[in-house]
Amino acid sequence: MASDSSDTAPISPSKEHVEYKELDVDVEFGGIEARNQLERRLLLKLDLHMSMLVLIYILNFVSNLPSSAARTQLTTDLHLKGPQYATLLSILYVGYIIMQVPSNMFLNYIKKPSLYMPACMVIWGVISALTGITTNFVGALLTRFFLGFIEAAFFPGAVFLISKWYKRTEIGSRLAILYCGNMISNAFGALIASGILANMDGVRAQAAWRWLFYIEGSLTVTVAIMAVFVLPDFPTTTKWLTDDERRLALKRMEEDAGVGDQLETENGGFGHGFYLAITDWKVWWIATLLIAQVIALSFTGYFPTLTATLGYNPTTSLLLVAPPWIYAAIFTFVWTRHSDQTQERFLHMSISNFIGIIGSLISICTMNTAARYFSLFLMAQSNSASVLMTTWESNTFARPPSKRAVCFSLINAVQQLGSISGSYVWPTNWGPTYQYSYTIVIACNVIVITMTWILRQHLKTLNKKLEGEEQEQGIEEKGFRYVL
Questions:
Q1: Which pLDDT does position 4 carry in this prediction?
Q2: Distance CA 381, CA 189 (A)
Q3: Which pLDDT band, with edges at 50, 70 and 90, does 65 fall under?
Q4: Residue 285 contacts residue 338 (beta carbons within 8 Å)
Q5: Does the N-terminal or the C-terminal CB of the chain have fewer CB atoms within 10 Å?
Q6: Which pLDDT does position 352 carry in this prediction?
């Protein structure tokens, strides 16, 4: 894997640029202390507005939760046979794969996430509600496909939006908070589902699982209207920033990568970022390892099924879903924050995956109720590895923004092949032990650890090359480095 000059050339700071930075000691912001105060206010304002993404992500994931929470009722009422239930889960990701790249390219072009994302939310809320009126496999299949088609706009768009505002020392903890929305929806979505399934069956002559979709769809449309007034756009297009805040937001990103975010790095037309992304082998390497990572996390969509193997009634089984995900959310936030502080990704990610391997081994070796429930905690925390990889992507594909937008969406689209495959990893005839399923999870975790180590070694080589270029040019100030 020989390093390519294109990996380093676009982000190597020029000598003139470094000298300019040395002369500028935050005078335009009134000095260092005034800048620090302004930066704290800017980050607080940003964090408050970005918190809307967490709520959206909760609803985004909850729109998929009824299928797993109400698996038995859904299978009976829609007369599903064989692998049809798994197909309902997997078809969602086909829409994801098709739309994620063009969606992020369009978002980077219009620069209005505060309008684009809520508009998509309204549509997926309506489609989710319509899932409740389906009466057969084909109807459910169509609504699930188009749901994925529209939902594809959210996650890569949210990651891209966060990357436009936060520095590499800040982005991990912000993405962790976003992912915590996913984990919270796993925890409390199951609690809500248990209440609805236990108390709303037969209300207005509707099955309880249908009410799950009606309620979730209505909530999504309501929140989408609120999001229009809360979500930020990009630093150059957000209206509620003061002039000083806008200049500081742009300067922060320039300092983080050594060059400006837009004018100094965008040299091509609309499709230039797409070309840069598809010709960078690191994009395909990360996408491939994330396919394995997603399969290793495939238990997420079947968590109610796994808690049901503990031998309790359906309501209790759904209630048992919550504690592992609450623990996983806390662990993920603390672990990714530590990763940000130490600026280290590989070891943090590998340790998380290794703990997940231990959890799978416990489930393979015993049917003891306490041991298997404990193993679910260990497995749930391994979601932090996915958070860390997404953060690592942002550090690895820093500039230009058009390439970064395509990288996020392309990688996320390709990794959905893992979601499609993972939907078939937990067939009912492998239960209640699911030993084959856990073996697949372990194998995929090992693949991920191996591939991330290779990626780390390559990035380490690129860092040495960047350092050598700086020494040759007589640049004393340390410029951009890949996070390892």
A1: 47
A2: 18
A3: low
A4: no
A5: N
A6: 97
Total-model pTM: 0.77
Which among 335, 237, 247, 297 is positioned nearest to 422, based on CA atoms?
A: 297
- Provide the token pair at 194: 């248990």
Cα separation, 63 vs 132, in Å, equals: 11
Assigned token pair, 127: 């489609």
Neighbours of 337 (CB within 10 A): 14
Q: Is the pLDDT of residue 165 over 60?
A: yes
**Higher pLDDT residue, 15 or 291?**
291
Q: Which two tokens stand for residue 458?
A: 């390559």
In tens, the pLDDT along 456-471 reads: 999 999 999 988 888 8
At 461 the pLDDT is 94
Least Cα distance to 427 among 186, 71, 94 occurs for 71
pLDDT of residue 19: 43
- Token look-up 């699982």 returns 209
* Beta carbons within 10 angstroms of residue 476's beta carbon: 10
Which residue type sits at 94?
V
Please write down the HEC assignment for all residues of 19-86: HHHHHCCCHHHCCHHHHHHHHHHHHHHHHHHHHHHHHHHHHHHHCCHHHHHCHHHHHHHCCCCCCHHH
Does residue 197 contact residue 208 with C-beta atoms inside 8 Å? Answer: yes
User: Crossing angle, helix 435-473 and helix 281-296, to 10 degrees?
Assistant: 150
Neighbour-count burial for 265-286, b at 16+ CB within 10 Å, e otherwise: bbeeeeeebbebbeebebbebb
Q: What are phi and psi of 431, to 5 degrees?
A: -85, 170
Classify the phi-psi angles of 343: left when phi > 0, otherwise alpha if psi is within -120 to 50, otherwise beta: left
Closest CA to 288 of 52, 455, 176, 127: 455
Rounded alpha-carbon distances, angstroms, from residue 341 to 98, 261, 429: 36, 23, 45
CB 419 within 8 A of CB 299: no
